[in-house]
Structures are given as structure tokens and as C-alpha cells.
Amino acid sequence: MENKAALGVFDSGVGGLTVLREIMKRDHYERIIYLGDTGRVPYGTRSADKIKEYAEDDISFLLSQGAEKVIAACGTVSAVALDTLRKSHPDIPIDGVIDATVAGAARATRNGKIGVIGTAATVRSGVYQRRLGESFDVTVTACPLFVPLAEYGFACEERGRATVFDACEYYLSPLKAAGIDTLVMGCTHFPLLEDFFEEYFDGGVALINSGRELAATIEKGTCIAPSLELFVTDDTKAFSEVAKAFSGCYDLPRPKRVRIQ
Ligand code: DGL
User: Fold this and answer.
1) So what's the pLDDT on residue 219?
2) How far is the C-alpha of 205 from the C-alpha of 220, rounded, in Å?
């Protein structure tokens, strides 16, 4: 197993699993290594320098485990650190989620009004404003609270639901008022709250999921049952519980706790 070429996938926590579950359906890698940097989540409230430093640690760990291609399954890292990572690892293909997500939103909108929600760092990077703003009417909102709500399983618990709805009202009402018909979930944690967004907008917006968009750009591989290894940098129990609730049809292995700094 160890000598098989691996695909490395990383995020600050559980969010990247929303990408993982989509790419597992398509990529041809027989071995996939996922790292959730749960000891340092969230990334999106931090400075660009910190995010780059964390992402370098993540990639170094994945390379040490044999990754020969890496996917930053994190909107924040993709928006803030991808160029830096590609420069410091020129021999490794490193993919992010922005290109596919932008293309998906452009394809989906009918009225040209696109809402983008992401972390503060993603919004500050201006990437969606630049990439979509020339052709579309774009309203961008930072929604930092959605990250812990997803990471700590509020959406999985009946008693957490009201809190998630309050946060939806708080963050999404300007987007509703702007008349958007397409909502970019610009943080990979956000698809864990997808049902709430769907309900908040009464099914009236197309929800753009980065993982799904990215997976659609990958040529369908032949490996249908890749071996999967999960690593986290803090408590594995919380991660496992949320991961289990959202893993869909996959039987996720137990994550191993590792040090990456
Ligand atoms: N899931 C990440 C993203 O896509 C990171 C969220 C966070 O750690 O703040 O932006």
C-alpha cells in the first residue's frame, strides 16, 4: 500500500471531505491521503502569511506520506496561497477549487446575479470579485461563523438547527435582497450546511459546490474503490463524528492523529 502513488487532499478540518467525496468518484488514484488540520482550524480568519505557512506544513506532510499530486480542498488556501505553494513545489501538480467554482457559477446563473459566501480571507483576497465581477453582478459576503457550525456538527444535531438558521438569516439576507439566483459556497465547509441554504432560499438559487465542480473537471478514472487514509492534527473523535454524518455512502476509516509542524 505504502508504495502506491497517492493523491493528497487537505483542508483545515472536515470541510475538505465535501471535496474528497466528489473526487473519490472520479480520480484514478488507488490511494488517497486526507489531512484535516483540526488543531489549527479555522484558517479563514487568519492573515495571508499564516495561511500560507499552514498550507506549506500541510503539503509537506502529504508529500512525506507519498503524495504525488495535491488538491487544496480549501477555498481559503486556494484563494490565498495556491500561487505560493505552486512556486515552492514546482514538481508537484497542486490544484485548488477556485477555477472550477468560478466556471460552475458562470454556467449556472440565468439572471447574472451571483452571491458568493466564503471565509474572511477568501473575501479579502478579492478572487471572486475579480473573476466573476467583470461579467456578473456579484455580491460577496464573509461568513466566518458557518465554519465552526459545520466543523462542530451543529447541522447534524436537532438542537443546533435554530442556531444555523439564525446565522443564515444574519449572513444571507443581503444576498436574498440582491435577488441572486446562484450562490457560490466559496468555502468547502459550507456544503455541510447546504440543506439550510436550500431552505433559506426556498430552493430558488443554484448552489455551487466547489468539490462537485472540481470533480467534474477530472477525467473519470478507473479506480472505483481507492484506499483512503485520514489524518488530523487534533482530537479524532469530533472529526470522526461529523465526518461520519456527512460521508454519504463511504465507509470512512478511523483518522490518525499526527503532528505536522
Ligand atoms: N474549508 C475551508 C475553506 O474552504 C477553511 C475554513 C476555515 O478554516 O476557516 O475556506
Assistant:
1) 78
2) 28
Of all residues in the chain, the percent with pLDDT exceeding 70 is 94
Structural contact between residues 31 and 4, judged by C-beta atoms closer than 8 angstroms: yes
- pLDDT > 90 in the chain, percent: 79
Q: What is the pLDDT of residue 250?
A: 59
Cell digits of residue 167: 446565522
**Could you give the residue ranges of the DSSP H alpha helices within the chain?**
17-23, 48-64, 75-80, 82-88, 98-108, 120-125, 127-133, 146-151, 161-177, 194-200, 210-216, 236-246
Q: Is the pLDDT assigned to residue 189 strictly greater than 60? A: yes
Give the distance (Å) from ligand 1 centre to CA of residue 120.
10
Average of per-residue pLDDT across 38-46: 97
Q: How far apart are CA 19 and CA 189, in angstroms?
A: 9
Q: From the alpha carbon of 186, which atom of ligand 1 is closest?
A: 4
Amino acid at residue number 198: E
Rounded-to-integer distance, Cα 170 and Cα 164, Å: 10
For ligand 1, say whether the CB of 12 is within 6 Å of any of its atoms: yes
- 172-186: average pLDDT: 98
Cα 57 to ligand 1 centroid, rounded to whole Å? 16
Query: Is the minimum distance from the CB of 188 to ligand 1 under 6 angstroms?
Result: yes
- Give how far Cα 174 sits from Cα of 134, 179, 183, 229, Å: 21, 9, 12, 40
What pLDDT score does 26 carry?
81
Lateral strand order in the sheet of 67-72? 94-95, 67-72, 6-11, 31-36, 227-232, 256-257
Summarize pLDDT for 97-124 with one digit per residue, the tens: 999 999 999 999 999 999 999 999 999 9
**Domains detected in the chain:** 6-96+214-257 (3.40.50.1860), 98-210 (3.40.50.1860)
